[in-house]
Amino acid sequence: MLTSIRGVLAATLLAGTALAATPALADETDPPKEFTISGSAAVVSQYRFRGIAQSDNKPAIQGSITLSHESGFYIATWGSSTAGDTTNTPIAPGGTEIDVYGGWAKQLGAVKVDIGGYGYIYPNAPAGNLYEIYGSVAGTLGPVTAKVGLNYAPAQTNLADDNVYVYGELSGGIPGTPISLHGHLGYTDGSLAYVKNYLDWSVGASVTWKNLTLDASVVGTNVSRADSDFYNGCGSIACSDYFHRPAKTVGVVSLTASF
Fold it and tell me: Does residue 230 surpass a pLDDT of 80?
C-alpha cells in the first residue's frame, strides 16, 4: 500500500510567562514576552489516535507549532502523515492529517484548566473532516500529575451522530533521572467508535536529553479479534484480520525534537 509521508508542522500547548528581570540584571535580561512560539518535529514507529492505527501500522512523521499569549490563550496546528488508501487497512485518512485548534489554558490555584475547540482536516479525504470542543483539568501532587478530560463532537456534516471521548492520565518524572512515566485510559462512545464503543489505553516511559525526547509505549484497545469477526458482514477470517489489525495492542516508539 502506498502511504503518503507528508509531514505538517503542528502543535503542543506551552503557555508561559517570562521571569521579570531583577534591577541588578536589568541590562542583561530580556523583558517578559507577551507571546511565545513553540513547536516540535517527531518520527514515530506508527501513528495511533485513541488507540486506533491511522498510518497502516507503519512509521509516520509529525510536527507542531503553537502561538501562546501570556493571558493563557493559544492557537496551534499539528500534522501527521497517515495511511493513503484502504488496501491493507480500513482506516485511511488520505495520506495527510492537519489539525487546527485553539483555546485557553491557565493555572487556577491547584489545578490547570484547558478549554478550546479542535478541527481535524484531511486534505485528500475531506469526508472525514470534523470538529470537537474539549476541556480538561490537571493537578500535580509531588512528582505525579493527574489529568481528566472530555472531547465532544456534535453531529455535523461528516458525522451522523455525536461522539463523546472521556479520558484520564497519570504522568510523572523519576526524581534525579531524565526518565518520565505515563499512562492513559480513554473511552469512545458514539459516531467515532471503531467496531464498537471501546476503551483505549497506553503506558510508557520517556527519556529527555536537551530538546530531544525518546519515548517507548504500549498502546492498545479492548476491541478483540472476536469483536472484529465477520464485522460489517464481510464473512471471512481474512476480513476479521483486516478490521482487527488497526486496534490490536502494539509497541510504539517515537523521537521528538522540541523548540
Answer: no
